[in-house]
Design brief:
Layout (H helix, E strand, L loop, with lengths): L2 H7 L23 H11 L7 H14 L3 E5 L2 H11 L7 E5 L5 H8 L3 E5 L10 H11 E4 L2 E4 L5 E5 L11 H11 L2 E5 L7 E2 L2 E2 L6 E5 L12 E5 L2 H11 L22 H11 L2 H18 L6 E3 L6 E2 L6 E4 L1 H4 L3 H10 L22 E2 L3 H8 E3 L8 H12 L3
Parallel strand pairs: 2-3, 2-6, 3-15, 6-7, 7-10
Antiparallel strand pairs: 1-11, 4-5, 5-6, 8-9, 8-13, 10-11, 12-14, 14-16
Helix pairs in contact: 2-9, 3-9, 4-5, 4-8, 6-7, 10-14
The chain binds pyridoxal-5'-phosphate.
The site of pyridoxal-5'-phosphate has 15 residues, from α4 and α5.
């Protein structure tokens, strides 16, 4: 099967092991999804106004513990708006981890700002706060309460930590640095809804945060996103900008350039149904991670993703590092062998400092993102994956090539 076909199957709702195929991660839509979507169609509320949008916003705000939530058409749109609401301006710089899906770096560019790429730490693979500190202390100067990058001359206005793969970033040092240097914190929590850092849910650790409900995230609305914040002015700004910056909806007066980023009622209907099941979804993800960890305990050269003592991970995308010297095969070799057995697996993202799309970005590197990218492989971890399928994957990974 080609990579393109395999990649598209990730989002196919009916793709749960057809003919023995084990997909990487597919949604589970077995709650009130049909009922709520039907309600949208029956009542004619299909577009971006409607009761489910407000209900989904309230549900999510309550779940993460934020004062305000604004539903958007995607997680990437949420990031774009969150950056604008947080006061990131054209020609500013924003610190983004080097190992992440590309969306946060792209969103920084949409805002006219530039990403500065920060390598990750080797234990939990998250943004390395020590590198952030080094950069701010050694490579920046402070003028009038603002921070400027000495090399580029640009203002550094925000930190954008990304809680990758369901695990939180170690936020305390990041929060302290943000205070010391007068920077906003925009959390990209798109992969980690429900994860906790020292008993606080991600999304409530910085100044503003974003979630995604794309097809392979912990809950899905088909496509969609959410901005959460405790700041009432930023919330109002985010709502305004994501709904075309309408100042007079009758006379069509717009004082600014806004965006058509509002979530629809149909998407939100799915979101409400999915939120009813999130505790079960997270339990399932954690149990899958435990099964894999136990399965690979005695396997040389395969290191499973970890959970920090200060964290509650949702293990959104279960990932292992394959050390070729000990395992006898590299991560891509293992991927090909799994594919022959009709099991989908996938490497992590190309590190952003290697991405042709962000060639010019300044980067602070230790080599960690590169090594993780070489070794990482995500394994099947759909919420609804069967124990038999997991055992099958463990068996094939365990008896190497
Ligand atoms: C999924 C994801 C996004 C964007 O979400 P979309 O809803 O697909 O736009 C942003 N950042 C990260 C890290 C993601 O994994």
């Amino acid at each position: 099967m080609s990579d393109t076909v395999l990649a598209s199957m990730q989002f196919e709702p009916g793709a749960m092991a057809p003919g023995g195929f084990i997909p990487l991660s597919v949604p589970q839509l077995r709650g009130n999804e049909w009922k709520y979507v039907k309600e949208c169609l029956d009542t004619n509320w299909v577009s971006s106004a409607g009761p489910f949008v407000n209900r989904f916003e309230e549900t999510l705000a309550r779940y993460v513990g934020a004062a305000h939530a604004i539903a958007t058409s995607s997680g990437t749109a949420a990031l774009h708006i969150a950056l604008l609401a947080a006061g990131v301006r054209p020609d500013d710089e924003v610190l983004v981890p080097a190992l992440t899906f590309i969306a946060p770096a792209n969103a920084v560019r949409y805002a006219g700002a530039y990403p500065v790429l920060v390598d990750v730490e080797p234990t939990y693979w998250q943004m390395n706060a020590e590198l952030v500190a080094d950069f701010l202390r050694r490579e920046c100067r402070r003028t009038d309460g603002q921070t400027f990058n000495r090399t580029s001359g640009r203002r550094v206005s925000a930190l954008l930590p990304v809680h990758i793969l369901g695990h939180p970033v170690d936020m305390e040092p990041i929060i302290q640095l943000a205070r010391e240097f007068g920077l906003a914190i925009i959390e990209d929590a798109t992969e980690s809804l429900g994860a906790e850092y020292k008993s606080t849910k991600v999304g409530c650790l910085g100044d503003i945060a974003c979630f995604s409900f794309n097809g392979n995230k912990i809950i899905t609305t088909g496509g969609g996103g959410m901005i959460v914040t405790d700041n009432p002015e930023w919330a109002e700004k985010a709502r305004y900008l994501s709904t075309q910056a309408k100042d007079d909806p009758i006379e069509y007066v717009h004082k600014e350039i806004g965006y058509n980023y509002r979530m629809t009622n149909i998407q939100a209907a799915l979101g409400c149904a999915q939120m009813e099941q999130i505790d079960d979804f997270i339990r399932a993800k954690r149990s899958i991670a435990e099964t894999y960890a136990r399965g690979f305990e005695k396997l040389n050269g395969v290191e499973v993703m970890r959970e920090a003592p200060w964290a509650a991970s949702i293990f959104w995308m279960f990932t292992v590092l394959v050390r070729e010297a000990e395992y006898g095969e590299d991560s891509r070799g293992l991927m090909r062998r799994l594919r022959k057995e009709r099991i989908q697996s996938r490497p992590l993202w190309q590190p952003l400092h290697r991405s042709p799309a962000h060639q010019k970005a300044q980067s602070l590197l230790t080599g960690c993102a590169d090594i993780i990218n070489q070794r990482a492989l995500s394994l099947p971890c759909s919420v609804g994956v069967s124990q038999a399928d997991l055992n099958n994957v463990i068996e094939i990974v365990s008896c190497r090539g």
